[in-house]
Structures are given as C-alpha cells and as structure tokens.
Specification:
Radius of gyration: 17 Å
Number of helices: 10
CATH architecture: Alpha Horseshoe
Shape: globular
CATH superfamily: Tetratricopeptide repeat domain
CATH class: Mainly Alpha
Structural class: mainly alpha
Strand content: under 5%
Largest sheet: none
Order of helices and strands: HHHHHHHHHH
Number of strands: 0
Number of domains: 1
C-alpha cells in the first residue's frame, strides 16, 4: 500500500517525461518479423516489439503499469483500470497506458469504452499491433465484423505471425455471408 501511495504522490507531483522515440528500432523489428520464415522465428521478434511498448517513460510510470498488469493478471479488472487511469493521467502520451486499460475493459466486456482507449493508443502509436488486434477483437465483440477485418489485416501487414491471423477465415465468412455491422455470428 505504501508503494502504491508513493507512486501516486510521485505521479501527482511530477510530469511524465516524453515517450522515447524508438521508431527506428520498431521498424527494424517489424521488417525482421515480416521476413521471418515461421511463427517460431517470429516469436522473439514479437517479444522485442512488446518489450519496447511495455517500457514506460520513467520509473514511476513503469511501477504504475506493472501494478496494473499484475492486477489484471490477478483478475482484478476494476483495480487494473484504476491503475491504468493513473498511468494515462500521468503519461497521457504513452500509448501502452491506453492499450492496457482497453484490455482490462475488454476483459470486463465493456467493449465500447475499450474501443475508445484503443483509438487513443493508435493515435499515439499507429503501428501498435497489440492495439490493432485488440481493436479487431473488440469490434468482433461488438458484432462489427466488417469493421474488424481491415483492422486485423492492418495488424497482420505489420506482423503476419500474430495468433489472431486465425480469425481471418471467420471474418471472411462473415463478409461473404453479408454479416457485418451489428450482426453476431
């Protein structure tokens, strides 16, 4: 509890530093993952991409992010959302704060609010494949299959080895059947 309060008072009294520009490193990793011959070869590259996104701008932001992720992993979704609220308030330019809050909200079934956070994450990091796949899954959850397909395809254009690639046949079938906005499969 003391650590949580220390993180809150640090966040309240200080400004989050700018998010580091790691676009060159991300571009190299995305090029390598696209060239990977299979999912096994792509896995360490994908972990490297996630490591960049999960590296918060400073120690305070990292503590808040890590607490929120631990709460989410412990199925304390309301607690996770509160931590990610703190992270977004402290570091409003850090895409992963929005992405993680969206994931917690998605797990709560609050798809419309999750979609707002995913759009905020993508406004800050358009190449964030986690936010792109999260948005596709959220759109599917909302029954908006026709909207989900291009978002998932955008993620797969960046990383063709994402596990969500298995959803394409379902989305293609939904499109072929004329299902889309607001229609459940």
């Amino acid at each position: 509890m003391a650590a949580a309060l220390a993180g809150l008072s640090a966040a309240a009294g200080a400004a989050c530093p700018p998010v580091a520009d790691r676009s060159g490193e991300l571009a190299r990793l995305f090029a390598a993952v696209r060239a990977a011959p299979d999912a096994d070869a792509a896995a360490p590259l994908t972990r490297g991409i996630w490591a960049i996104w999960a590296a918060a701008p400073d120690a305070t932001a990292q503590e808040i992010l890590d607490r929120g992720m631990r709460r989410r992993e412990g199925y304390d979704f309301p607690g996770a959302v509160r931590e990610f609220d703190r992270l977004v308030a402290y570091c409003p330019d850090y895409a992963e704060g929005y992405n993680q809050r969206a994931f917690a909200r998605y797990l709560q079934g609050d798809y419309a609010v999750a979609l707002t956070d995913l759009d905020a994450a993508l406004a800050r990091a358009p190449e964030h494949t986690g936010a792109l796949t999260g948005k596709a899954l959220t759109l599917i959850g909302l029954g908006r299959h026709a909207d989900a397909s291009p978002v998932l395809r955008a993620a797969l254009a960046l990383n063709p080895w994402l596990p969500e690639r298995g959803l394409l046949p379902m989305l293609d079938a939904a499109e072929g059947a004329g299902l889309g906005a607001g229609v459940e499969l």
